[in-house]
Write a structure and sequence with these properties.
The chain is α+β, with helices and mostly antiparallel strands and about 110 residues long. The chain has helices at about 15-20, 20-30, 85-95, 100-105; strands spanning about 35-40, 45, 50-55, 60, 65, 70. The strands form 3 sheets. It has a two-stranded antiparallel sheet. Strand 5 and strand 6 (about 70) form a beta hairpin. The protein is globular. The protein starts with 15 loop residues before the first helix and ends in an 8-residue tail after the last helix. The relative contact order is 0.21.
Amino acid sequence: KWNNNGGKFSTYTDNPEVDEIPQVFSHFTWSVTDGKELVCDLQGVWNRFDGFTFTDPVMHWSTTERGGSRHGNSQKNHRRNVNKGQSGIAAFFATHTCSDLCRKMGLRRFIK
C-alpha cells in the first residue's frame, strides 16, 4: 500500500522516483477535478515492465449531495466509511510534499 485514506504513505522500492508516482497520481486526481475529488488508498503492485497496477482505491469527495456525502456516506457514518471527504483530502496533503514531477505537471497547490 503506497498511501491510505488517512494521509499515510509508504515506500516499497529502492527507487524514490517510482515511489513518488502514487503520491503524484493522488495529487493529480485532486488537481484535475478542481479540488473536488482525490483518489487514494493506493495499493497493488509495480514492476519495471508493466508499471503500476492499483487495486481497491478510495475516493474522497469534498462536496455533498442530498444532505450526505456521495455514495451514501452520511455524516453519522463518517468514521466507518472510507470516503473521508474534505478532511481526508486535507490529511493527504498534510503528508504530501510536492515533487519535481508535481511541478512539471503543473498540479495545483493545496492551500491549507
